[in-house]
Specification:
- One of its GO terms (cellular component) is extracellular region.
- Keywords: Signal, Transport.
- The chain is built from twelve helices and 13 strands.
- It has helices at about 1-15, 20-25, 50-65, 80-85, 100-105, 145-150, 165-170, 180-185, 190, 215-230, 235-250, 260-265; strands at about 30-35, 35, 40-45, 45-50, 70-75, 90, 105-110, 115-120, 135-140, 155-160, 175-180, 195-210, 210-215.
- The strands form three sheets. It has a five-stranded mixed β-sheet. Strands 10-9-11-8-12 form a five-stranded mixed β-sheet, with helices on both faces.
- About 40% of the residues are buried.
Length: about 270
């Protein structure tokens, strides 16, 4: 009986997610963002800052209106789907990678960034290619594309609760490397000169997209149209040049991450 009640509660959360019309009438859109993933999203002086925040504000302006308000709600990589299903947020802009298993639970917009798995190592270890890490311990955040790619390739992995935990474990010597989305791991050598990323393109490309509740078609359609519009006007290119590239100090080549060429098929 308890299982039936739980299932009904989950279904109710999905069924009663805020529609596009409801969001526009309320003038507020609730966006789930991560709290500690610079330069995408982080908290400074009590306020969220970063690319994801600018992205969320622009979406709010275009979809909700000039007087619309964005409510930024912190999520984690482990609870973000639950937050969406339980109608705690209207959409997710949280380094959310399209994945077949996740597609059973949420709907994804068209992608806006491409990423591969990159590997963070200590400068003193001189790792230059992935083959040198055979038989070594590679730290990975659990349930990520990095974990899947490396296990599939036969590497030894050790799971962490989150990115910062993986970084801390690497610094403590409890792993030989830390693998994750290259746009994320490339951030660490910027703040810690004892680390480097020489291995940046493991596995096939994955794609960041906006997550919405399953079946919320009107909101999803509006977001997809917004992505087309933003790509046409050069929003992502400008954001990369103004926000991401200065942060990475030229180590993240935009040709590997931007998807503007794909959006050209829409005219």
């Amino acid at each position: 009986m308890k299982k039936i009640i739980l299932s009904l509660c989950v279904m109710a959360g999905v069924l009663f997610g805020n529609s596009l019309d409801e969001i526009q009438k309320s003038g507020v859109i609730r966006v789930g963002v991560l709290g500690d993933e610079p330069p995408f999203s982080s908290v400074e002086d009590g306020n969220f800052v970063g690319f994801d925040i600018d992205f969320a504000k622009r979406i709010t302006k275009d979809i909700v209106g000039e007087n619309g308000k964005v409510e930024l709600i912190e999520v984690t990589t482990h609870n973000r789907i639950e937050m969406l299903q339980n109608n705690k947020v209207d959409l997710l802009i949280a380094e959310f990678i399209i994945d077949p298993e996740r597609e059973k639970l949420v709907d994804f917009s068209m992608p806006y960034f491409a990423v591969n798995t990159g590997v963070l190592t200590k400068v003193e270890d001189h790792y230059a290619n992935i083959s040198q890490l055979r038989g070594k311990t590679i730290l990975v955040e659990t349930d990520t594309e990095a974990e899947k790619d490396l296990r599939k390739a036969g590497f030894n992995t050790l799971g962490c609760n989150d990115m910062f935990h993986c970084y801390s474990e690497l610094k403590a010597g409890r792993g030989d490397a830390f693998a994750g989305a290259n746009l994320i791991v490339l951030a660490y050598p910027i703040i810690d000169k004892k680390l480097e990323v020489n291995i940046t393109g493991i596995g096939t490309s994955s794609y960041y997209a906006i997550g919405v509740q399953k079946g919320n078609k009107e909101l999803l359609d509006a977001l997809n149209q917004e992505l087309i519009t933003l790509s046409k006007e050069g929003f992502f290119k400008k954001a990369f040049e103004d926000t991401l590239d200065p942060f990475y100090k030229g180590t993240a080549d935009k040709k590997y991450f931007l998807l503007d060429d794909i959006y050209r098929i829409f005219g």
